[in-house]
């Protein structure tokens, strides 16, 4: 049985079932250094058993139909709101993020998502009647339907245990699939709490299960399920895709980013500075769509840098307090991330960058914190401009004009999201279209994620496929095309035997149908 302390005890006991023969994983609060729980490290054999149980449970869940499943999803929506204090406490305890980061980006997203998919699943997955222009199949009924794939495996990261791990399970469930979630070994407790929630809300046994464990548990899941939804680093994403290729298992990959923000000379500098500060530092800078690098047009560079530096200097670190209003920037969730952040800052300084504020691990605090940091005099020879830092750092580069900013924004292996600040929104939109990224905001950043109707997914090394919108649920289905003739004569033109007459008739038909195109 999972051994846990405090409020997590209940969550793990419900879903933890029998002890794993593989060992246990300790869960640490990064803001305090305390071990708050231990969870089983599930073996590949245990994963196989879980998938078998999921397969047995899935047909009953599918048979409930959209309305039956929506009832469970809408109960869960209310559960999230009613139990938000407990969920926030769990998230804060395993991530060390601020109360506000858990409330806005996780509670709000989770609650909205349940309502959205309950309402939209029947619309996005309704049978479609298709019309054809082909004379050869005229008069036939053509239907496109979406059938659940069966069992979906979701593998998640540690930065948003509810939104980026559990969040992707909601449309998979709404589509009629059973789901096995493999949360990050760093932050498994929120997923266990979500399992407890679904059970209380009437989700049938084994339709949703949590396979706690490390990378090996995730790897074991890949060969067993019918679809893999992976969110994590580009490095692991490549391994997941290679493993999935062995069984031709379809994958959707939401990977790393190095999101640029561009500030043009005509921007509202106060709004742009507030946004740059917030969107680079919220969730401790550990957001896949964090502002990771900033390009500012020369005429406003000095004023903008002064504004941002003063705002970043005023930020408070939360020190793990599970209360609103006590901190702005949370802990570094994943221990090795601290070394990456520090290495990027040191590499930049060694190559000529200047630290205007921050620049080192926070001292005199219990947990793992990095000081909110502003870097200037940076360029693309530095890791802080080219590799994902995933921490509270903001490197700012001066550019001559918008063209240079766009060129530098696109000089990246990543293409997740980007933002452009200008009072000329038509120009902002024109620049957005030139940036190689799956999502671009004008005078905003990150907020597109809240528009569940709008697909979100990375270009280049940032991913494959999308979440949200119609594609965000259709990916969890197998499309099936059905054709039924309305009139079925005993013989069609193409049926055997072949003959000269039949070929002549077909030739004339093809010529009439397709031979009248314009010629140059
Ligand atoms: P990670 O790649 O280290 O781990 C992600 C998950 O994969 C974890 O659950 C881990 O246990 C599992 N895993 C590790 N090896 C595996 C293997 N061989 N097979 C199967 N699963 C395996 O990522 P992380 O450090 O947890 O998360 C941070 C990264 O996630 C950042 O790069 C961030 O940008 C990215 N991210 C992307 C999005 C997005 O929507 N694009 C959202 C959040 C985070």
How is this structure best described in words?
- The N terminus is likely disordered.
- A seven-stranded mixed beta sheet has the order 12-13-14-11-10-16-17, sandwiched between helices.
- Helix 2 packs across helix 9, helix 3 packs antiparallel against helix 5 and helix 4 crosses helix 5.
- The relative contact order is 0.13.
- 42% of the residues lie in helices and 18% in strands.
- The protein has 18 helices and 20 strands.
- The protein is α/β, with parallel strands linked by helices and 520 residues long.
- The longest helix has 26 residues.
- It folds into three domains: 40 residues, no CATH class; 222 residues, Aldehyde Dehydrogenase, Chain A, domain 1, CATH 3.40.605; 194 residues, 3-Layer(aba) Sandwich (Aldehyde Dehydrogenase, Chain A, domain 2).
- The chain binds nicotinamide-adenine-dinucleotide.
- The site of nicotinamide-adenine-dinucleotide (NAD) has 30 residues, from helix 9 and helix 10.
What brief labels describe this structure?
single chain, 520 residues, alpha/beta, Aldehyde Dehydrogenase, Chain A, domain 1, Aldehyde Dehydrogenase, Chain A, domain 2, seven-stranded mixed sheet, six-stranded mixed sheet, 20 strands, 42% helix, globular, disordered N terminus, binds nicotinamide-adenine-dinucleotide
